[in-house]
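Appendix B, Record 12. Input sequence as logged:
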Amino acid sequence: MRLRFLDRHRLRDPSYRFLFDHYKDSELVALDTELTSLNLGTAEILSIGAVRLQGNQIFSGDALDLLIKPNGLISRESIKVHHLRHIDLDHGLDPRVAIAHFLEFIGARPLVGYFLQFDIAVLNKYVRPWLGIRIPNRQIEISSLYHQYVSRRSPTQAVDLRFGSIIRDLEIPPLEAHNARSDAIMTAMAYIKLNQEPKPHLRGASFGYVGA
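Logged structural output:
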């Protein structure tokens, strides 16, 4: 809370004060990024996917799907994971332009993600030098919710927290793997299933799409 208060006063551009608004609605934003590396010191963002959700509705027709042109080289190992090559990003957005779109999209809504703390840390590498703040939105980690769900269902069961394992166990239709928009939508579906009643039996839980 104290860090949020300090960041509010460190904000360099008053047009982004909306990030610190007290959010009263029930919408959330599921987020995913594709990166050049899992090393925080060197990682650059290649794509950002985000989708709004509310209740059991996912607003997929309004999903954010941004490609970003990196400053450095993309390693072969990285390309094997997300299949984004330099040629695919030749017309990508400048990182600051993409992150401005992202901040406008999320507003003050809470964020949901898998390995979310790392995604936010990489985003903050761009946001902090520019705006003087860290992204202040409340964060909800999907792997923590899933761990609680498994522990309620079977307290002695070992918990596999890999994203693909979570998606399979919750019987979520698989979309394109390592695609930021698709991963954001699957994250939104996982969040809905993990928050639907009754618990801990989630089989048959439903969600709906709004938009294409």
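The longest helix spans residues 116-131.
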